[in-house]
Write a structure and sequence with these properties.
The protein has one domain (4-116). It is α+β, with helices and mostly antiparallel strands. A hairpin with a 7-residue loop joins β1 and β2 (18-24). 37% of the residues lie in helices and 18% in strands. The strands form two sheets. It has a three-stranded antiparallel sheet.
Length: 118
């Protein structure tokens, strides 16, 4: 599981009216920590949800090669293909995070627009 934090914003007049987005750490160790890691998702916060600023368990360290953390290995064709799959997964995770942040921004703008005229 990746290191993350949750941005929670109170948006309504009632106690539990909030929107939240999970923001995952986008460093090499986290992007290449595990294949199929959960993509970040923006969703309404429910009572009992993860508290703001709470940390997930630390991910495994990337493989070491030549004294440098290197999740990418291109010494053989098989290793190169595996590395390309890891890179594609990392790009997909970043793209998903950007989409979720954009959706969160759209929700905030929509809420702002509806409260300006209320």
């Amino acid at each position: 599981s990746q290191a993350s934090w949750t941005l929670r914003v109170h948006v309504g007049a009632n106690q539990d009216e909030a929107i939240a987005v999970n923001i995952y750490s986008a460093n090499v160790a986290n992007l290449f920590a595990g294949e199929g890691a959960q993509a970040a998702q923006a969703a309404p916060v429910q009572e009992g949800a993860q508290e703001e600023g709470a940390q997930q368990p630390t991910p495994a360290t990337a493989p070491t090669q030549g004294g440098v953390n290197s999740p990418v290995n291109v010494t053989t064709t098989v290793d190169a293909n595996t590395s390309l799959a890891k890179i594609e997964n990392a790009i997909r995770m970043i793209s998903d995070q950007r989409a979720n942040l954009g959706a969160f921004q759209n929700r905030l703008e929509s809420i702002k627009g509806s409260t300006e005229y209320a």
